[in-house]
Amino acid sequence: MNSAQFNVEYHVTAVITHLIKVGREEEYEEWMRGIIPVARTFPGHLGVNVLRPQKGVHSEYIIVLHFDHHQNLQAWLESDVRQELIERAKPLIQAPEDVQILTGLETWFELPRRSQKSPPKRYKMVLLTWLGVFVTISIVSRLLSPLLTPLPMLLAQVITIGVVVWILTYLLMPQLTRLFYKWLYPTT
């Protein structure tokens, strides 16, 4: 991770990979149950997703951590409390953690540096994105319509689109990607 060359001021995602020593998985799970609530107390924390190892797919724990700004993410990553917790995890992991920082929608479909897997076929990404957008817009527009009707149309659209993008990025697309994982990444 090279934070010196990274300076953005919008939502940011850290993808943290840990390869756990055989037989230490339960201890690692317990360690995770301790670190996640601590991360939630830091300013700007927007959520975390944990992808657990899957036989034949990946053998690592992949933690996808969302913050509102790069500065807040950096404060968590460099905090003394996190450093102490990472020290406690070292006996459980095979190699130093891999931390990658992302700022775009690339995490909807692929995790960086996952060279054993090629990205999903584009038509699959299109179909899954269409499904996510369709479902989200259908629900959000019905729910927000009564509240936004008195507003100017452009303002109502800006609010609706903002809500839709937030839901897609942080709630729906990670779930759809997980749900359709075997279809997106078929074993060959």
From TrEMBL:
PROSITE patterns: ABM, PH_DOMAIN. It comes from the Bacteria. The chain crosses the membrane at residues 123-145, 151-173. Residues 12-101 form the ABM domain. The keyword Membrane applies. InterPro entries: ABM_dom, ABM_predict, Dimeric_a/b-barrel, PH_domain. Signal peptide: none annotated. GO terms for molecular function: monooxygenase activity. Keywords: Membrane, Monooxygenase, Oxidoreductase, Transmembrane, Transmembrane helix. Residues 1-40 form the PH domain. The keyword RNA-binding does not apply. This is Antibiotic biosynthesis monooxygenase. It comes from Anabaenopsis circularis NIES-21.
